[in-house]
């Protein structure tokens, strides 16, 4: 596959990289940050981001077993702890945004209350804000790469 375009404004790239770095730093858990980014990239079918973040995850000590089972994390038993499971559920809810535009009387809608509340049990308010920011920024990266068809391993993007 060849890229449709490799043009990306340098100011946009720098802003996105800064947002990514700030979100990761604020989350304070590099291995979890990579699991979250990989899971969103799986859902968005972004080969470029998968390739990149799988490599980084290994550097941060994420086990091959976790990487192998990430696509089926809900059925993977004790491979993922409760904190990781809460972060992955939130990743899926923010990435997929199921539920359309309707709101439930409980205040739900796009991201179900129970998913957000479960994450809030495992992350303080600041880390939860950084987790949501990280999920948001990887989704933006995925869209930038997929829409332009940037292939895995590309050095021009």
TrEMBL record:
It comes from the Bacteria. Pfam families: CMD. SUPFAM superfamilies: AhpD-like. Residues 13-92 form the Carboxymuconolactone decarboxylase-like domain. NCBIfam families: ahpD_dom. This is Carboxymuconolactone decarboxylase family protein. It comes from Streptomyces caeni.
